Amino acid sequence: MDKDTTRSVEVSRRRFLVTSAAGSALPLAATVVRDAGAQVPSPAAAARTAPQPSLAIVLTVNGTDHRLNIDPRTTLLDALREHIGLVGSKKGCDHGQCGACTVLVNGERVLACLSLAAQAQGAPVTTIEGLARGDELHPMQQAFIDNDAFQCGYCTPGQIVSAIGCVQEGRLSGDDEIREYMSGNLCRCAAYPNIVEAIREAATKMRRSA
Ligand code: FES
Ligand code: FES
Asked: Is the pLDDT confidence value at 45 over 90?
């Protein structure tokens, strides 16, 4: 084989290797991309197909037992609103900052958006729906109406339940204490002066009848 023939063969071999490598790399790359998309589900898809955990609990709300099968992470607020259908307790911030979700658990004020439903098992839960006796409103509910202590009403269930809890704890003896202990219940309509009047009036009645 002469010199020119040898160079020609080398060039041909090099070109063969280059073109073969390019030709084989592309299908390989396509396979990798295709398989990556097919075999690694997105986090959202994985969450959709993952088996949902379930927990059987009994919640006693306003004197009635409710048997629920829920995700163990369900908050008390979502259990009340979404599973039991008691939508009086409001979801204002869902972060423990507005007080709109306040309910009584064992007679004590609790922010239902920050509590797990499972934690309330075995303890009586009272919501705004459980305060009236038939057609007779709770004194705190009546005082809010009599004193025009709300505008949109969104914060009102939490205000009323929280105020009742405070009175039962022996709080709210004067306006300063009312403002201090009700400071966790925000009113976007700023009905605060009338709320203070309503609570003062109802607290007096509640203490007299206790
Ligand atoms: S909704 Fe619970 S504190 Fe705002
Ligand atoms: S009455 Fe509207 S938020 Fe309080």
From this structure: no
**Lateral strand order in the sheet of 125-126:** 64-70, 55-61, 125-126, 102-105, 108-111
pTM: 0.78
Confidence of residue 153 (pLDDT cuts 50, 70, 90): very high
Q: Tokens 């239902």 — which residue?
A: 112
* The ligand 1 atom nearest the CA atom of 97: 3
197 CB-near residues (< 8 Å, 6+ apart): 147, 149
CB-based contact 163:102 (threshold 8 Å): no
> How do residues 90-113 score in pLDDT, each as one tens digit?
999 999 999 999 999 999 999 999
pLDDT exceeds cutoff 80 at 11: no
- Token couple for 12: 């041909």
Ligand nearest to the CA of 194: 2
Ligand 1 lined by 101 (C-beta under 6 Å): yes
Ligand 1 close to Cβ of residue 99 (< 6 A): yes
Pocket of ligand 1 contains residue 94 by CB under 6 Å: yes
Residue 59: what pLDDT?
98
Determine contact, residues 91/77, Cβ cutoff 8 Å: yes
Task: Decide: 203 in ligand 1 pocket, CB within 6 A.
Answer: no
Question: How many Å lie between the centroid of ligand 1 and the Cα of residue 96?
Answer: 4
